[in-house]
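Morning run. Coffee first, then this:
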Amino acid sequence: MIIGGCWLGECHYVTEGNYYALNMMHLCKKLLEYAGLESERLRIEWISAAEGTRFAEVMNDFAAQLQELGPVGNGNGTNGISAKLEEIQQLVPYIKLTKKDKLAIRLDKESDYDQLYTREEVEEIFTNVVSYYIDPEKCQACMICARKCPVDGISGGKNKIHVIDQDSCIRCGTCLQVCPQKFEAVIEVKGREVPNPIPEEKRTIVRKKAGTGAE
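And here it is:
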């Protein structure tokens, strides 16, 4: 993949997204290496709208580079690579969240970005992935976490114990932040498997009626 943008310092928009793209591209190169792909398969180039000749030269050069690299996997199969890419894809929001401060860095020299991320740093992301789990013994079905979840990844309702869908969860930690302190039902899980969710038939909370002791 090749990314083209305006030359640094010449963007007409106040966002100056080319600096962010340059930073993100270097992180993505390390992610490609983690997946078992050559980082040279991703490239960023600065080309203005008036540089048609340069655009053609860059594209021809990149096409030649890809031809030299050969097919993905170099004939050894892509199953392992595909699995790693799926893992990365699922964790993109989490990666952007954990690296948001670094992604916001703007360096003076373009060459300085080359050392911004390390392979070990990227591997640590996947080694220490944080997950969240709602303790069914503590959940009071207040629905606060379910309403605040940015991806609607928490199921539940009134008097129904909440459950986090681990496949939908982007690991932003919002549920942990908004769970009332008096409940402390949301647990941060790191370095171990997330407990299985409570069976559907056991999710209903039967409350006692005030002043009667009856259910």
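The CA atoms of residues 102 and 116 lie 8 Å apart. Good start to the day.
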